[in-house]
Structures are given as structure tokens and as C-alpha cells.
Design brief:
heterodimer; A: mainly beta; 4-stranded antiparallel beta sheet; B: alpha+beta; Porin; 8-stranded antiparallel barrel
Amino acid sequence: MKSLKYLFLVLILILSMAACTDKTLGPIFFTLKTERSLVADRGLEDEMTIHEIVKVGTRYFAAGNTLYTRTETGNWTTVSPPVSGALCNTIEIFGGNLYAGFFTVGGTGLGLYRTDPDIIDWGNSPIPDSKVQNIQIGLVKAAGGNLYVSTVEQNGAAYDYYLYESLDGDSYTGITFDGASPITLPIIDVEDDTTSLWITAGPFLYLGTPAAIKQGAVDDPVGSGGKPLGGLLYSTILSQLYVSGKDGKLWMWDAATWSSESVTDAPSFTKFVDLDPATGNGDIFVGTQDKGYYRLIGGDQTNYERRPEYNISALYNGAINSLFLDISVTPDALFACTYSAGLWRADYVGGEWLWVQE
Amino acid sequence: MPNKLIYILLAVLLFLYLPCNPALAQDQDQEEEQTKEQPFMVYSLGQQTLSLSAGLFIPLFFQSFDWDYSKTNLGLGGAGSLQWGIHLNNNWMVGLEVGGMFSKSTQENTLYQLPITAKGSYIIHFFPFEFPIFVGTGMDIVKYTEQVQLNWIIKPGFSSIWKYNINWGFGLNVVYWWVLQPWSTQPDQGLMGNFLEITATAQYNF
């Protein structure tokens, strides 16, 4: 009888140990076993902000106020701006050229510049259209074979936002929103699948064609206004449009109906990236402003998980401005541009994205 | 050598000898008495021991429940413990031990473990040395970044203690930490931690 009592006590002890263990974050020893060094120092500060990264040929460019560049295997070096001391917040590759929006330290917009990415010379091929000169550039993005440029102009205490479309990078045509231009809402993202154009501005989604953009009829808050939207993605793999909200909502349009999902913990979503189906299993990642990024498994916005592993704390609790996938290298590389937590790169190895800080 | 110096040396030796003398005398008396019944009778029922240890923590390897081995990705760390024991006779002692360790991981995060164990020891005597062989078992609080878990630990080991006098002993512990961390929701992620503690120890008997 006594031995039964002891056995019972041991059982209680084992059960209490199991009960006291939080199973949500995974076992500690397994975490340690799979842990890798997070340092792959490529010359960037760990606490810096990176807005965007692009690649042309074998060369990357990163806009982190200062413009940086590196080869696939090299370290980051600074790129001289067109005007001494000018800062850069947005970049894009279009027609083989590097386009970059510059502004002064005082916040005065210098406009859109372009250069051959192999021989940096901002004055060699100036953009002739004055609409994108001497003005603050909010966004420059290539989509559907066009280059879209958003500009910002102070108007008293408020700001006016313009959006232009260009087929060649030289001349720019203004886009009107329900017949109006400029609008007073910041233009956040643009997507173009060559037949339709979608734009997120403040809390609204606009859709149509460049000639006739209308405000979208998406569920609240997109339709009625509310928290600003985050990013836009048209997945050519899934033929679906995704919209993220800063109130933790994700919308998906499958060319027929809209569906929405309120994500647990209501993360403030930012930009998307569509992963290569060969390596990413059709997954879509979407950044957040304070909870790393979320993986939409197989592109299903209702089936998601917060990433990366919790012990990569700078990313797990990080603010991700944008994500960039490079499938021209082996292994595939995914970049996360963060606010005040530097630039992170994940190599896709053994079915996992292994993160290191550049 | 001048006579004065010899006297001073003798005085110093005498001074150093005096505090030891009662203990040694007692030891001698006890020894003489004990040789009649049982050799090296140092401890008896009810005597207690407090031990304080500190030293190195050496991560060895992780082992899965399928017997696969892997690196711990931990660096050399530190360990310490406080132990209380009560002697049952000259050879057997039972007690409790509260320990702790820390070690840095590859990502510069710190792993902490705090084992609280019940412990049984068998002491082999070679006066003035003792060689306790022991095993402890109990719970181990494991903390790493935001995660805290409670596991079962088994700590076999041995010590070499030099008895400075009847109260004090100093020596070295070599202890194996075997920490079981099964994981019911994903059994393939369950692992057993294997670590080694090498610590210097000071023990006080009363």
C-alpha cells in the first residue's frame, strides 16, 4: 500500500511538471538544437532602418535612407546620392535601370532619379518629366509592366498625394481617384495584373484601370474607412488579390468574391511577398509593425502562423517594412527590411527559412 | 639560523597546531574507539552536512528518444548548488539540493536551469579523504528567452573531499545532469539533455 502511495506521488509530480510547461513556444532543447548563429555581418548596422531592397543582375540595392549596394557574395557599400547628403526611402528596378526617390535631411523632396545600376551616374539619364522632379517621392513600384510613382506635396497643414503611371520611365500620366487628383490620403501600395489596377490609399482600396479608378467595395474598414491598409499583393500563382490591414485584417479576392479574416492578436500588417511555389509551397508572407511576419499557409489567409521562431527576438517582435524574395540564388533568399532592426536574410535550407542579420 | 628565529618559528608552529589539536585529539580518540568496533567512524545518525559548490557547467549533447545525438549549441557555462544532508550512519546520507546553471547559446541568449533534487549518497572513507557517490532526482526549471519549462532531472555523480578538520571539508564534484524533456504534442521534438558539472565544494558538518 505504501509503495502505491509513492507511485501515486511520483505520478502527480510528473503530471504537475507537464502541466506547468507552456507548449505554445516549443521545447527548449529542440530550440537550442536547431539554433544557428544569427550573425552574417555584411556591413550594415544592426539597429538601422531599411525601407526596401531590390535586385538587378547579381547586384542588390537597399534603401535605408542611405542607399546601399552589394553583390550576391559581397558586403554592403554606400552609393553616392545625386546630391550630397541626400537620403533615399524608395527604390525600384524598371527597364534595367535603378529608380530611386531622394530627399534632403530637412525633408525637402528632390524627386525621382535613375541610373544604370552597373555604373552609378544619376546625371547620365535624367528623367525628363517635371511631375516627378523636385518633389517628395512616396512610392516607386513596377507592376504589370508599368512604373507607378507616388508623390507627396505639402498643402498648408495637409498633404496632397499624386499617383503617376509610366510605360517607359520617361513620361508620367496622372491617375485620378473617382475623377479626383490629388487625394489627401497617403498612397500605400499598387498592384497591376496587366488588366486591373489596385491601389491602397489610407483606409481605402481603389480598383479599376489607370483610366478609371474607383474606390473598392471591400468589407469594412476598406470600404467605410478605419485603420489604414497595409499592403497589396496580386498572386500570379494563385490568381488572387490580397489586401492587408493595420487592424489585423486580411482580405482575399479570388476574382469572384471577397473573403476576410481577423487575425488573432490583431497585428498591424504591412507588405506581402509571394513565395516561389517550388520552395515556398505556395505560401505568402506578410509583414507586421510589431509581430514579425505571418505565414499564410498555401496562400490561405484563414490558415496562418506567426513567424519566425520566437527566439529570433529582433524579428519575432520586429517591424517589417517590406519583404523581398530572390529565387535567382541558391538557396533561395528572402530579405526582411525592418524598422530599427536592420536587414535580415533567410536562406531556404532543408524546408526552413534560416534567418541571419546582415 | 639565529636562535631568535627558531623560537619564533616554533611559536608560530605551536600557534597553528593549537586550534587543530582538540580536533585531532578528538579524532584520535574516536579513531581508537572506533577501531575496536568499526574503522573510520566519522558520521553517525542525525549528523548534518551543508555544502556549497560552484564551478563549471559543460554542455555535452542532446539525445532524442530515438537515440539520435546532436549538438547543444551551448557554450561553457557556470554551475552552483547548495546542499543539505542528514547522515543515516557513517556511509549513508540523504538530503536536498538546490542548484543552478547558466550557459550562452549560439545566438548569445542564456539558458538557465534550476534543479531541485532529493539526493542519496554513499560515502567511502579513506581518512582524511571521503569519496561520496550519489544520485539526485527531482524537478528542473529550465528557462530560455521567453520560454520556461519544468522537466525531470537525474543527477548521478561523485565527489572527492579532503577533511580539513572534523567540521570542514573541501573538494571537487563531478556530476552528470540528465534532463528529460519529452514533448507530447510533437514527440519528435522531445530531447534528453546531457550535461556535466565540475564544481569545487566546501562542506560543513555539524
